[in-house]
Amino acid sequence: MGLDYDESQDIAQETLLRLWQMRDDSRLYNPEGFAAVIAHRLSLNHLRRKPPLPLESEESASQTNPSPLDEIIQQEDVHWLEQKIKELPSTLHAVLKMRQEERYSNQQIATLLGIKEDSVSTLLARARRQLMEQIKQLRRERQ
Q1: Torsion over CA of 109, 117, 42 and 130, rounded to 10 degrees?
Q2: What is the distance between the alpha carbons of residues 60 and 95, in angstroms, rounded to a whole number?
Q3: Is 99 exposed, middle or buried (0-12, 13-18, 19+ CB in 10 A)?
Q4: pLDDT tens digit sequence for 83-112
Q5: Please, are residues 43 and 35 in contact by the beta-carbon 8 Å criterion?
Q6: Domain assignment of residue 27, given as a range
Q7: Cα–Cα distance between 129 and 136 in angstroms, integer?
Q8: d(CA 121, CA 94)
Q9: In a domain, 35, yes or no
Q10: Would you say residue 1 has pLDDT above 80?
Q11: Residue 137 shares a structural domain with residue 72
């Protein structure tokens, strides 16, 4: 799932610890399957805590020479996306801006907004999903 060796070892140890804590639980019919679910969810949680990767570095952008038409289309797309982000409901807009532009962690955002850290993840996912749906709709319209 994109984890390095040390991270995957930590996930495996945490999974085994949780299974050991539940060893007397009669609901544990399939320990292998349950271990897989635990490891998967722990991996996802670990990946969510990592800071987001930059979309594109300035060096790689300057290596290509787009045509004038491509530059105009790209500028229109950037303007369109900025407008759609501004049109998001205020909470979604604030959370997305703090996370993507200001690079705050989910914990910092939760503290600033006075909400739970899990709520920050939910709001980020909702904002990104809304934007992705609008992007998909734009692509369908262009085709």
Answers
A1: -70
A2: 28
A3: buried
A4: 999 999 999 999 999 998 888 999 999 999
A5: no
A6: 5-49
A7: 10
A8: 13
A9: yes
A10: no
A11: yes
